[in-house]
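Sharing a chain and its predicted structure for anyone who wants a worked example. Both blocks are below, sequence first, tokens second.
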Amino acid sequence: MEVGRAGGLRVAAFFSQMAYVCSIHYQNMLEREREFKSSEAVCLSCLPVMDSGNLPSYSYFGDIAEEVAVFAGNQASNMHKADWCLFNTFDALEHEGNSSRTYMIN
């Protein structure tokens, strides 16, 4: 992004995860110190009310869970700096993938 801006270009950020996943990571990045209780309803901008079980969990990474959470959240760190944000929906990819597997099996 910085290289494009330095060259006077407008820039886009491409996210390989779906928009709602990026939104969760972005909100988590803004409120990193906040801990959600398991019984607490979670309200994030532009998303339906969720419980804490709907949020990303990195506990299965053991001792490096915090580092993995920071890495995942940093993907969304330049979201507010881009002129455009592009998100992968996976719709076409999943349809094409399923069709080709069916063809290969038959």
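Comments welcome. Residues 58 and 66 are 7 Å apart (CA to CA).
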